[in-house]
Amino acid sequence: MSVFHFFKKLFRKRWRRWRRAIWSCAIVLIAGVVIWSGQNIKDQMKKLLTATSDETPLAVETMHYLKIEDDKQEERIEDQREFMQKLNTSKGKKHVHVRITYVCGTEEQDLGRLTADGIYELMNKNPLWQGRLDDKGEVWLEQTISDLSPACKRQAYISVDSKGNLTLFDGPPEEEKVMRTFFQLDVGSMESSLPKDVIKQLEDGIRIQDIEEYNSVLSTFSDYARDMAENVMKPSP
């Protein structure tokens, strides 16, 4: 069995985990249609909220998530408004930096000194940038992207460090350029469950070239995180 096909198979198995999120979105849409059509909301929502008996109701769970996202968005808008107010009251040019933060990797660029008008022009062209002033009065225009940076796509590997931690490396693992440590693996459980060629590939380093591979590898080996494995092995009271 090739390593690629092994992860592809495991990634497909996790489809049943995603179905729950899809059903959550569907339930919220159904609730919106019910409200719009003027039906008996109380009775209909009761049915939605009791759709599952042994888990947190999906509609409640989804609405809670949406509420958190709304709160974050309001906070970002308020931070941006405060930044613009400070920029409006400042005088002269400001030293400006751009920072793009990825799931794996960060890119920074120094744009030199710009006027407030120049900064606003940049932000208008890049509406997802979030501005802030640091302690030195310098401007940082920042954005978070749910993807791997170009550098990570070229040279990132996931492997195991000397302490048994699943680790993201910048380059081959033997160069020991650690970018991020995820969690400690239950190596014994992993070796007894996974094919030998998969273990060997992990030890040599699994090349990560896109966000799908990154998520697939993390999802696969999270099943063997030591704290999770120990919880599973504990006898029921």
TrEMBL record:
InterPro entries assigned: BofC_C, BofC_C_sf
Record-given protein name: Bypass of forespore C C-terminal domain-containing protein
Bypass of forespore C C-terminal domain location: 147-222
Organism: Paenibacillus glucanolyticus
Transmembrane segments: 21-38
Assigned keywords, A-Z: Membrane, Transmembrane, Transmembrane helix
Keyword rRNA-binding: no
